[in-house]
Amino acid sequence: MDTSNLPHDDSVEELLPQRSSLTDPLLQQRSIHLSRSSPNNTSQLAIIGSNLCPIESLDYELIENDLLNQNWRSLGKVDKYRYIFLKWTFSLFIGILVSAVGFFNNLAVENIAGLKFFSLSKLMDAERYWMAFGVFTGVNLLLLLSASAITTFISPAAAGSGIPEVKAYLNGVDAPNILTLKTLFVKILGTILSVSSSLHVGKAGPMVHIGACIASIFGQGGSQKYHLTCGWLRYFKNDRDRRDLVTIGAGAGIAAAFRAPVGGVLFALESLSSWWRSALLWRSFFTTAVVAVVLRLLIDVCSSGQCGLFGKGGLIMYDVTNDTTTYHLADLPVVILLGVIGGVLGSLYNFLMLKVVRIYGYINEKGRAHKLLLTSVVSILISCFLYWLPWIASCRPCPSTSNGDCLSTNRFRQFQCPKNHYNDLASLFFNTNDDAIRNLYVTGSNDFYQPISMLLFFVSSYILGILSYGVVAPFGLFVPIILTGATYGRLVAILLGSYTELDHGLVAILGSASFLGGTMRMTVSVCVIILELTNNLLLLPLVMLVLLVSKSVADSFTGNIYDMILQLKGLPYLEGHAEPYMRQLTVSDVVSGPLHVFNGIEKVGNIVHTLRSTGHHGFPVIDEPPFSSSPVLYGLILRAHLLVILKKKAFLPTCSLSANESAYKRFVAGDFDKRGSGKHDTIDDINITPEEMEMFVDLHPFTNTSPYTVVETMSLAKALILFREVGLRHMLLVPKSSDRAPVVGILTRHDFLPEHILGLHPFLVSSRWKRLRWRRSTVSKCFRSFIMWMAHSS
To answer: CBS domain spans which residues (predicted)?
Structure first.
């Protein structure tokens, strides 16, 4: 929260107490007023999970001060080898733990949902239909309400998929409790309960958040509170190493969800990470390889039937290898058609989901009771829909390939049908989403589903996926989107009939790819995930084509779903490109609020008062006569470091330089290690006596002497690229001429947000970069022209 809680007073002198006689003549020079005294309050609160929370920025810049430099020089070869060893060891343990959690989630969901559906089948066989409806609805309500309750009361940050929060974290945004142990446990348990409740959601998205939490806990260096830490682990108590670990953990989460190791690496690279390098690629690939091996071992353990209902279905158990898969040049128009439909449906899906999430947000804001009430209403509504809709479908005899016994597997459900008959719509509704996808992907099953059943299931899947998201519980979007895409893929294949010879299961796979491309706008990672999921390399050209078409079409209408949720939540995500209007502005055009600076030798009272009256997290340090011939920028000091200094009470009785040796004796580098996500000391936690307020602090040993500075005339576009690529938290502005104060402003993440910039310069709105998108008026005009052309032709 780099610029929150700034004072609104027009006079900085009113904010700071009277300084000593040394600094009084230079008070006006040090307390520099910028052209705009109003603070930047853009996006300093964001929705994390389901609650509104204050947010802060991460600092990936290497801090260079006397104390830390001395510590670095004291490290030997053993320390460096230990650091490298720990990086690879952590990657190994992350892979093992993430794969174990992914396996456990599948095991739990399949057993809980399997028992529910087994009990339902028993009641249906006994023709106790109303009792079956009551049990089905009651169990679903209990499961989902339990997931919502633990999320609401224990860890609201665990709500949703967590992918937007992880993506924002890897972009440099920190928020309370998003990667804590409490959030991890709630995420695991809540995902199992919500996915088992027949809500139209999946467990793949939460696995990204789970993997990120596990990795972040490794990077926190243990717990000082419970004395579970050691000196080795402090190497990772910084934002740079934690960022790498979280990236690795997120990729491992996708690998565990789909048993797709290469797809997990590419997903982290394409969709999550804002910074990437070859060394990180190698460690991430190692971790996902560990995930694949451990999953294979765990699955083999359960192959003997010792894991209950596990192994009867589930995406990580899914292997399809069809050597007879063929396609011809004449089939390409069908693939292109699927891509176009997926792009249109995907963009509409994003648009409608955003509307529903916004409505749910208004309800959830009213309090915990309203969150639970909304969850109950949605659960009951969906349960009624799922139970009664299959009664519309007609019964069908078991396929000849099953020898008349088609009900012994998860593929078919008898529901209300006579013996040796199945209800095709119930076979999709009364299964986990993973098993429903397996049923749709199966090749050689062109006659298993009726057109009306496919149409009803597609409409239901499309609508229920939109209505499910936004409930306060942990779940994801991946699986329902894959399921919806597979349904309309089969529907298109059925409607085309003899016009295509493509197998319906193959078209279902292409439908999933096109819908993923239309909603999430991922291409390379989705392509590889689909191939690893289906184990069918022959699909590669078709999957590539359908993804390219669907993404291109969908980009003409809306943005991708995760970016839209990021914006809705208010997370200050910095894009990798600069808007055109940024080239018309300089960095000095967007700074706001008064700038607070400290002397190299500063009075304790001034520091305490400034920390209490502002929310700044970085302060320029200026050296003035007699410590320098003229005012000069010495560096930048962080609020967290000032709090450590005040807590240790490293004060001087007079305004004089202290020997660096005294700082080395009183402080160690570990005192300034970054604490875990969302954990911060405050100035109110420190007691300073009136006598100590009159003392002084030498800030030189603790000041970052090499902060990133730019001249005040640099274009905003150029500064944004530097800020984002380096991963800065603060950027100092220095004057172009030497006869002015040594620093004229400080930029943080919020100063680069379009909302802030266009708020200061509204005349630039018209020059904002726009995608080539179809507007409603354009679509209406094209539709009217088409109708008139058709009427004229007839």
So the answer is: 703-763
